[in-house]
């Protein structure tokens, strides 16, 4: 079988080597030449490229691959953008790596339902949540843009996304909403979260829902503050 592994950090490197040892054809992709050079004798093929460049990724034998594994862990933005790009291309199976609950939510919104186990929460995300109690989780996509998970502001409860008009008012994009439910398990209350899919203009914002927003942090903060 043929596999493409995007990201040759510790996890991606180990995965690519193991798959090769098991007799599979493996193409390892990374944007750092030093990582590519380290593996060129250990896996079937190695390619140095930017996995967020659609032209470069399109040149890979995606149709022949049984699965593409996005193993990028240290750069959450690149991981998310790579996965979104792959969704636009002829890929049979995409397996995403998750390092936060928020990444899981976004991948679910993109209908990616196969995951590599998440890692511990980063200090940056924890600091962001402690700094603003209305922010549930967050990560930076680039120096300017972030994806923020926040409670639906009281001002917008009961409105559709079209009525709330958040994109025009605050220059943010609503990626999806999350429904939270509680259930008792072994005497403890367990909170289950489920993304409702890609947000539509007729999506109704209910009390207790969580918004997943994409935009500049200052604009998202303004939305939260003015929506109270």
How would you summarize the topology of this molecule?
Layout: E1 2-6, H1 10-21, E2 25-30, H2 33-39, E3 45-48, H3 54-58, E4 67-70, H4 76-87, E5 94-97, H5 101-109, E6 115-116, H6 123-131, E7 135-140, E8 145-151, H7 161-164, H8 166-170, E9 173-185, E10 188-198, E11 210-216, H9 217-226
Parallel strand pairs: 1-2, 1-4, 2-3, 4-5, 5-6
Antiparallel strand pairs: 7-8, 8-11, 9-10, 9-11
Please describe what this structure looks like.
It holds the Pfam family TrkA_N. It comes from Parapedobacter indicus. InterPro entries: NAD(P)-bd_dom_sf (IPR036291), RCK_C (IPR006037), RCK_C_sf (IPR036721), RCK_N (IPR003148), Trk_Ktr_HKT_K-transport (IPR050721). The protein is α/β, with parallel strands linked by helices. The chain folds into two domains: about 1-95, NAD(P)-binding Rossmann-like Domain (Rossmann fold, 3-Layer(aba) Sandwich), CATH 3.40.50.720; about 125-225, 2-Layer Sandwich (Alpha-Beta Plaits). It contains nine helices and eleven strands. It has helices spanning about 10-20, 35-40, 55-60, 75-85, 100-110, 125-130, 160-165, 165-170, 215-225, and strands spanning about 1-5, 25-30, 45-50, 65-70, 95, 115, 135-140, 145-150, 175-185, 190-200, 210-215. The strands form two sheets. A six-stranded parallel sheet has the order 3-2-1-4-5-6, with helices on both faces. A five-stranded antiparallel sheet has the order 7-8-11-9-10, with helices on both faces. The chain is elongated and about 60 Å long. The chain starts with a strand and ends with a helix. The model has no long low-confidence stretch (mean pLDDT about 85).
